[in-house]
Design brief:
There is one protein chain. The chain has 494 residues and is an alpha/beta fold. The protein folds into 2 domains: 235 residues, P-loop containing nucleotide triphosphate hydrolases (Rossmann fold), CATH 3.40.50.300; 164 residues, 3-Layer(aba) Sandwich (Rossmann fold). 44% of the residues lie in helices and 13% in strands. The protein has 19 helices and 14 strands. The strands form 2 sheets. It has a 7-stranded parallel sheet with strand order 3-4-2-5-6-1-7, sandwiched between helices. Strand 12, helix 15 and strand 13 form a beta-alpha-beta unit.
Length: 494
């Protein structure tokens, strides 16, 4: 027996499919026909967006009228515009708060990762500017100074990660009592990351009468509880099945005979001119591979949790603007990177579970474009990979290849020119230069306290052990080794 919520989702999916098919085939709705204000339509045109996607056709009539909406759609389906358009349109209209009030925004968008928050802002800002609204982004990992100043100056819309919102609320710098519209984007990922208690606290701080829009691929892991508690008379729109693969996406499984053969294959796949994202399981291996590819004349940048926020932004910008064609990432990028025209997604390390496979793969074939997904497989991984693909609903026949196989060369395409590696500046372990800002968030402070406590303990151990200090320790702590002057004084005193 399925739950009442699941039954409602199924009914919504069937009805929306019928309605959408009729709308798209009979009327070919435009944004204007859906009720989007002219200034926003013009801004969309300047962005090169003229035709709404199915999820936008489905949801805009309800969201623009102020209804709570639960939207389900696979990655790349156009969800960001589906909630950005009504938020901007409504906050600039009937819900306008008059003069901007410091620390009291009218709209709040919660996203699970810094990268996703940044990219939502990039999509929303041109629409907001067209309606004379201000948008700011708030997330951890960087100093809060600029974020706090933006709040004090007054903004209508805040796009944020939950942790930093909680920090600023606790400091009395952000108040949510004026929020008219709240959006939860990728709620299922927030659940996976353990954010739901914080999200619940944040939603409790917003007025119960406000509009709530929740977008999620699934309703498991507690997302359904958020829906039941915070959405009222919500309208459900299930544009796609929760984990349905993208039809424009072609999947390949390349089997290699050894680790060395896999390495040669990987370098060949990375060498083409088009954009490609290489997924690794660990932060260490992502960093190592990006460095090795760059040293081999294939410029690459990494993206993972050990990078500082400035380093993340810098690397993602280099990939987005075409300075480099290769991004080596851990799963942090599976939800947070939205870059157009990614030709290849390569699972260098197959993920642990099928949802991660689909989210990783969703970095290509976005917005109706074509894309290819390649999974590299060693003999010992065959069984686990077959099970994973079956759960993901992917049917593909593995083939044995090497770096010169025709199937490989067809996907590589034109080879990019060799780029001589530039000299590297000395950097911290997180990829950031030695200078830079310091995060003042509570979580960052706790981490620094733990690190400092551990360092102090280690120094104390070295000072009292009677052993020479290790490289990098201060000479002042080497109490077991007298200085040259001290030894001479001892000799003179004898």
């Amino acid at each position: 027996m399925c739950s009442p919520l699941a039954r409602r989702c199924l009914v919504a999916h069937v009805m929306n499919f019928i309605t959408r098919k009729y709308v798209l085939t009979m009327s070919h709705s435009s944004f204007s026909q859906l009720g989007v204000p002219a200034n926003i339509v013009s801004a969309l045109t300047r962005m090169g967006i003229d035709t709404p996607f199915p999820i936008q056709v489905d949801t805009l009539p309800d969201t623009l009228s102020g209804k709570d909406v639960l939207g389900r759609g696979k990655t790349g389906s156009g969800k960001t515009l589906a909630f950005s358009i009504p938020m901007v349109a409504r906050l600039a209209g009937d819900l306008s708060g008059g003069n901007r009030r410091g620390g009291r925004p009218l709209g709040l968008v919660l996203a699970p990762t810094r990268e996703l928050a940044t990219q939502i802002t990039a999509v929303m800002r041109p629409l907001a500017e067209a309606m004379n609204l201000r948008v700011t982004t708030i997330f951890g990992g960087v100093s809060q100074t600029r974020q706090v100043q933006a709040l004090r100056d007054g903004v209508e819309i805040v796009v944020a990660t939950p942790g930093r919102v909680e920090d600023l609320m606790g400091q009395g710098l952000l108040h949510l009592d004026a929020i008219e519209i709240t959006v939860l984007d990728e709620a299922d990922h927030m659940a996976d990351l353990g954010f739901l208690p914080v999200v619940t606290k944040i939603l409790n701080a917003t007025p119960g009468s406000g509009q709530r829009l929740l977008f999620s691929a699934t309703l498991d892991n507690g997302v359904n509880k958020l829906v039941q508690r915070f959405l009222h008379n919500e309208v459900m729109h299930a544009v796609d099945e929760a984990h349905s693969p993208v039809s424009q996406m072609t999947h390949h499984v390349f089997e290699t005979s050894s680790v060395e053969a896999k390495k040669e294959l990987l370098y060949k796949l990375a060498s083409g001119k088009g954009r490609r994202i290489l997924f690794m399981r660990t932060k260490h291996h992502a960093k190592k591979l990006a460095k090795a590819l760059t040293a081999a004349g294939i410029p690459a940048v990494d993206l993972h949790g050990n990078l500082s926020q400035p380093a993340r932004d810098r690397n993602l910008a280099a990939f987005s603007d075409g300075s480099v064609n290769v991004l080596v990432a851990t799963d942090v990028a599976a939800r947070g990177v939205h870059v157009d025209n990614v030709d290849l997604v390569i699972h260098v390390d197959p993920p642990m579970e099928h949802k991660a496979y689909l989210h990783r793969s969703g970095r290509t074939a976005r917005a109706g474009a074509q894309g290819d997904v390649i999974t590299l497989c060693l003999p010992t991984q065959k069984s686990d990979l077959a099970s994973l693909l079956r759960k993901a609903g992917i049917s593909v026949t593995p083939i044995g290849v090497n770096a010169s196989s025709p199937e490989v060369l067809a996907l590589v395409g034109e080879i990019a020119p060799y780029v001589k590696p530039a000299p590297q500046e000395h950097r911290h372990h997180d990829g950031a230069p030695r200078s830079g800002g310091t995060s003042t968030g509570a979580n960052a402070q706790r981490k620094r306290a733990r690190r400092n406590g551990s360092a102090a303990t280690n120094r104390d151990r070295g000072a009292h052990s009677g052993r020479p200090a290790k490289a990098g320790q201060s000479s002042r702590s080497r109490t077991a080794l007298p200085t040259t002057n001290a030894r001479r004084a001892q000799q003179r005193s004898r």
